Amino acid sequence: MDGSTEGTWDGLPVKLTDEILQTLEEVKFTHMTPVQSACIPLFMSNKDVAAEAVTGSGKTLAFVIPIIELLLRREDKLKKMQVGALVITPTRELALQISEVMALFLQKFPQFTQILLIGGTNPMDDVEKFKDKGAHVVIATPGRLEDMFRRKADGLDLASSVRSLDVLVLDEADRLLDMGFEASLNTILGHLPKQRRTGLFSATQTQELEKLVRAGLRNPVRISVKEKGVAASAVAQKTPSRLCNYYTICRTENKFNQLVAFLRQHKLEKHLIFFSTCACVEYYGRALETLVKRVTVHCIHGKMRSKRNQIFADFRALKNGILVCTDVMARGIDIPDVNWVLQYDPPSSACAFVHRCGRTARIGNQGNALVFLLPMEESYVNFLSINQKCPLQRMVLSGEALDVLPRVKALSLADRAMFDRGMRAFVSFVQAYAKHECSLIFRIKDLDLARLARGFALLRMPKMPELKGKTFPGFTRTPLDTDAIRYKDKQREKQRQKMLLELQQKLKEPPPPRRSFIRNKSWSKQTTKKERRKKRSAKRKLEEGSDVEDEDMKELLDDTRLLKRLKKGKISKEDFEKQMASESGAEEA
């Protein structure tokens, strides 16, 4: 089913509640987007929906409005601790954003409550909040929601609360599976009633998503929504129609210089800059804080815990600024007035490229995206055009980019924390590049590691398996001793010095004596305990200089010969015992 026209909310085949229409008017959403006009009537007529729509097309309202309408229908039966609607989304930022939209509409419906269950907060706070007030709408990330189902020992019986669930929504459903939440989703779905309305919303359809559709939806209506105004020849284009998508070619050692030059020329605009790894975000984010003056720079990535929610909220409130991030910000996130999406590193997955671009040009607004490619990576442009229906135009960056790398080196020399960040960023980038999905284009063997290290402004090459046994004539190591670089954080430096001292003391200590190991021998060559004991006794007597009579020595030798003959199978055990007994009897006589 294709939605091809926009219309007013009054044009829906189902009538919306007056309070919802008032809220839409207050927030100036006067017209529906195609995905909203297609999905809302289906949801409200109790149909399951599997919707594919380009990123930034207004999917959130396509399920928020039906959720409230369906809750209103059973308001009298819905009790305090009963959950009527559940929305699951892959990242806490997206969950927070959906919660804000839901709260906007619930202002006019105080009889309904919602709860946000996401990482980065104390789970016991969520338990107590739910036990105290309950929630008719739950918006959650899979990991935290799965944890809540296991909190019976803390007095929370969420499984009982969702037995009367009316609506389940999986937002950015394909991303839920990409991020490895399949096991968590299966656990969660096992707690939910089969009689429910289910909606899957995504910007792309995958084989894994198709499995989820078959498992969780009953005869779903499939919706594929294209934006109004898309030309017939480009009807399958997956990026917003008002997005200007560019690429530029940079030499490896000049890439960061070009990025800084671009940001300095666009100081009054709002930018998202995507890097491939968390370590690269930490390193380059700190460098940009120094190099791009009078511009607010925030960093966000998946390894951050408590700070992520606040950073996200702060950046959304800015009129201009820079958010340095990983793909944790690539899906479904709605940040107002983003002018440029800059992809410093192409993503490991081609579909992630489309989602990154979709952080701008949202809901019909104008936006721009630019990806930085190395000369050997230019064929990626054709790949995106064919594989992802995402055409790019070449942009030649104007002006000569100043060399800012010496200043980045100075930052590393002034603080060991920055030096460490640079080393970790380089290693993580090389490892990510080696695992790139498009390995025919992004080939690790074609990557000039010496130039790459210069582009990272490294003081020396790190120790890593990929560099073992190689020389790098194109890279000049700093003449300074990098071990002498100190942490600006005095406490951290004190701890490092303590560890260095302990290491030096261990090196001075004599090595422990080496243990002598007896190699395993075949059974036929092993000696018995009795034999070894006799040999040791005879040797000791000889060393002590005692008088050993010939008869005793002869007896010892005879016993040894008998044992050897027994082991070689020349005599039986009975013969051995008889001969030993006869020797013993003769001795007693």
Any descriptors?
alpha/beta, seven-stranded parallel β-sheet, about 600 residues, disordered C terminus, disordered N terminus
Topology (elements, then pairings):
Layout: H1 18-26, H2 34-44, E1 49-53, H3 59-73, E2 85-88, H4 92-106, E3 114-117, H5 123-133, E4 137-140, H6 142-149, H7 158-161, E5 167-171, H8 173-178, H9 182-191, E6 197-202, H10 207-216, E7 221-225, E8 243-249, H11 255-265, E9 270-274, H12 278-291, E10 297-300, H13 308-317, E11 321-325, E12 340-343, H14 350-357, E13 367-373, H15 380-387, E14 393-394, H16 405-414, H17 416-434, H18 449-455, H19 490-508, H20 529-543, H21 550-567, H22 573-588
Parallel strand pairs: 1-6, 1-7, 2-4, 2-5, 3-4, 5-6, 8-13, 8-14, 9-11, 9-12, 10-11, 12-13
Overview of the structural elements:
This protein is an alpha/beta fold and 589 residues long. The chain folds into 2 domains: 9-228, P-loop containing nucleotide triphosphate hydrolases (Rossmann fold), CATH 3.40.50; 241-488, 3-Layer(aba) Sandwich (Rossmann fold). It is 43% helix and 11% strand. It has 22 helices and 14 strands. It has helices at residues 18-26, 34-44, 59-73, 92-106, 123-133, 142-149, 158-161, 173-178, 182-191, 207-216, 255-265, 278-291, 308-317, 350-357, 380-387, 405-414, 416-434, 449-455, 490-508, 529-543, 550-567, 573-588, and strands at 49-53, 85-88, 114-117, 137-140, 167-171, 197-202, 221-225, 243-249, 270-274, 297-300, 321-325, 340-343, 367-373, 393-394. The chain has a 7-stranded parallel β-sheet, sandwiched between helices. Helix 20 (529-543) runs antiparallel to helix 21. The longest helix has 19 residues, at 416-434. It is extended and about 120 Å long. The protein starts with 17 loop residues before the first helix and ends with a helix. The relative contact order is 0.09. The model is unreliable at 1-5, 228-236 and 584-589 (pLDDT under 50).
